[in-house]
């Protein structure tokens, strides 16, 4: 959808009236200004004490920072960081939108403050073509939404504004750091799925006396060594210890909710004989199975 240029220019006027202090669960942003201009005046080298994001809608120019030139053209996007000298020059019919803001550190979470502190040092501040970034769609929707009236509309404008500014921390983060973060997230999600599936398998096969780490690892298509490491890291205990506790947990439920004998329950929970069951139960529960039943029945 093609958006009229007037939306970009006049929409920023509306945003300056509405979206100047933005609150979310983990962050508070102070917006200094929203802007949209068709005729850019070439300023001298200068710096800000805040972040400024610019997105080029049309035309050409050169962005210079630290003695390095970066070509600007339609869909180029760049970030100026606090106290970094820069300027835009050699502009030809340059039309771009921009927003200047800072994080309110004492009202934001430590994780958010750290994220924007890292952004101040990022090397990934210039994007030649940002047309496919979801942030641009948010920005355009925000500008259009700013022309509508009503309390609910204003709330949505504030929410979109906050989402837009928060997204910049991810867009302009260093690629290596971003890749490492994604890798760690995938590993964490993968480990969580392994643990979830292994717990279900153990629960459903407690009656098998020969239930083993190798068996569960094989079910999960993992090596025994890799599965053992994940299990210990995620749950803080060995596979053997966890299975023993689960057998006793299930046994305690059966002892107090059924009329089955201790021998039957020991077999159903994977113990090879009632004597071994009694020993393990007494060790973990600090009470013998028979006394456990009697104590429960007296309640």
From TrEMBL:
SUPFAM superfamilies: Homeodomain-like, Regulatory protein AraC. GO terms for molecular function: DNA-binding transcription factor activity; sequence-specific DNA binding. The keyword Transcription applies. Pfam families: AraC_binding, HTH_18. SMART domains: HTH_ARAC (SM00342). Keywords: DNA-binding, Transcription, Transcription regulation. The keyword Ligase does not apply. Residues 196-295 form the HTH araC/xylS-type domain. PANTHER family: ARAC-FAMILY TRANSCRIPTIONAL REGULATOR (PTHR43280), HTH-TYPE TRANSCRIPTIONAL ACTIVATOR RHAS (PTHR43280:SF28). This is HTH araC/xylS-type domain-containing protein. It comes from Paenibacillus pectinilyticus.
């Amino acid at each position: 959808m093609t958006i009229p240029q007037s939306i970009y220019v006049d929409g920023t006027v509306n945003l300056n009236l509405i979206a100047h202090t933005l609150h979310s669960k983990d962050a508070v942003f102070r917006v200094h200004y929203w802007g949209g201009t068709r005729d850019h005046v070439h300023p001298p080298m200068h710096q800000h004490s805040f972040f400024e994001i610019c997105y080029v809608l049309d035309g050409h120019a050169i962005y210079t920072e630290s003695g390095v030139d970066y070509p600007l053209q339609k869909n180029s996007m760049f970030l100026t960081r606090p106290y970094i000298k820069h300027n835009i020059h050699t502009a030809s019919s340059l039309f771009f939108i921009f927003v200047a803001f800072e994080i309110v550190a004492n009202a934001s979470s430590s994780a958010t403050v750290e994220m924007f502190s890292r952004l101040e040092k990022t090397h990934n501040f210039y994007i030649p073509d940002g047309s496919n970034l979801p942030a641009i769609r948010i920005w355009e929707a925000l500008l259009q939404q700013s022309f509508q009236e009503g309390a609910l509309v204003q709330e949505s404008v504030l929410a979109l504004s906050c989402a837009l500014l928060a997204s910049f921390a991810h867009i302009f983060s260093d690629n290596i750091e971003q890749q490492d973060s994604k890798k760690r997230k995938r590993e964490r999600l993968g480990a969580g799925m392994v643990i979830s599936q292994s717990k279900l398998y153990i629960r459903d096969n407690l009656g098998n006396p020969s239930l083993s780490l190798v068996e569960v690892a094989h079910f999960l298509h993992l090596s025994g060594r890799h599965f053992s490491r994940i299990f210990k890291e995620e749950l803080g205990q060995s596979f053997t210890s966890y299975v023993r506790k689960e057998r006793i947990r299930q046994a305690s439920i059966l002892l107090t909710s059924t009329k089955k004998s201790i021998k039957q329950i020991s077999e159903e929970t994977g113990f090879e004989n009632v004597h071994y069951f009694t020993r393990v139960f007494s060790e973990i529960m600090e009470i013998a199975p028979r006394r456990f039943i009697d104590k429960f029945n007296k309640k």
